[in-house]
Amino acid sequence: MNLVRPIALIIAFSSTISCTKAASVAAQSADEFVDSIGVNVHAFPPYTDQHDLVKTRLGELGVRHLRDGDNEQALRYAEDLFVKFGIKTTFLMGRRIGGPDEWKSPLDLAKIDVELSEIKKLAGAATEALEGPNEYDIHSDKRDVNWAATLRGYQQQLYAKAKSDPALKSLPVIAPSLTSAGAYSAVGDLDAAIDRSCVHLYQSTRNPGTPGWGDNGYGSIRWMFDFIVTNQSPSRKIVWSTECGYNSELPERVEAKYLPRMFAEFYRNGIERSFKYELLGNQWGLLRDDGSPKPAFMALRNLIALLKDPGPSFAPTELDFDLVSKIDDVRTLVLQKRDGTFYIVLWREVSGWDVNQKKELRPPSQSLTLCVRQSSRQPSIRWMKPAP
């Protein structure tokens, strides 16, 4: 078969032909991969101006996890989405001395109890996790000279209060996000006050598996683990990327190729959940300002629809297969559904965009042979496309 363009190819079959070099690969749950996908939303215009349309699009997308602030409007909005679709929300904590809308104001630790009380009252069933303050290294001002110490104190109190509350103690507490390796170093070890590490893994206009573009592979997934996560969690707690994705610097069709690969690449590297920034908006959104879907929305919707498999947990098995190819940039993610069907997600981790000349790249076709053990039926081959 040929891999014509760097978009995902998904092959589904029920397993066991004889492959002389076939190796056993442990599959992962297809539904757990779907469960790794999240999206950022906002409980303010234009979201609230198009509330019904946003709800409709979220239903179409099929995503199960959202991330938003914890103001009263956001809490009520999240509860509504939970009732309608079963979607759960990770709430971003951190109210300020100057009020919830003054994001340059210092954190107010005295308001943690109020935040938690309102979450329980207005969105208890819809709440999935509590996340520390957002990018406080750049969203604070000169009034907070010791911002790193303030943030550490806030996170420690948030964790202690949440874990001592019977209604909240089972919720994971996510670390605060920061915007530079220096900031993560300044805040330091938060292991005792978090259940998950937190990063914002943006890769500019580069492909998801970029080797990076700076010192020590800056910007790559590996750089994030080696120079960010180790500062925040020396014990290497599980990572969430609560913001990630691409914006309008990329043509829409290139973003549609990159986005499914981004979620697959993050997941295969051990990032438990990733939230695309964001749902609505011409610059960053999966939807344009008027609510119309971009190709990336369609690509993500199709990926979720194909691989979702809700139900009780199960133990995926192994698949014997072999890829014969002269190219070394092929990536695979082996998934399995509860009925035993395996899905091999195949893609070439190559650039589809020239970041210097600002033009789309079309890598030449390459061939490979996929060999699997004899199946009771022929493998079905499906291309993941940007549009329906």
Tell me what you see in this structure.
This protein is α/β, with parallel strands linked by helices and 388 residues long. It has 2 domains: 2-28 and 313-383, no CATH class; 31-307, Glycosidases (TIM Barrel, Alpha-Beta Barrel), CATH 3.20.20.80. It is 28% helix and 23% strand. The chain is built from 9 helices and 19 strands. It has helices at residues 30-34, 51-61, 72-85, 112-123, 147-163, 181-187, 221-232, 252-268, 295-307, and strands at residues 2-3, 9-13, 23-26, 28-29, 37-40, 65-69, 88-92, 127-131, 173-174, 197-202, 239-245, 271-276, 318-325, 330-336, 342-348, 353-354, 359-360, 366-372, 380-383. The strands form 4 sheets. It has an 8-stranded parallel β-sheet with strand order 9-8-7-6-5-12-11-10. A 5-stranded mixed β-sheet has the order 4-14-15-2-19. The chain is globular and about 65 Å long. The two termini are 22 Å apart. The model is unreliable at 1-7 (pLDDT under 50).
The CATH H-level superfamily of the largest domain is Glycosidases
* Rg on CA atoms, Å: 22 Å
Q: How much of the residues is beta strand, in percent?
A: 15-25%
**Main beta sheet, described?**
8 strands, parallel
* CATH fold description of the largest domain: TIM Barrel
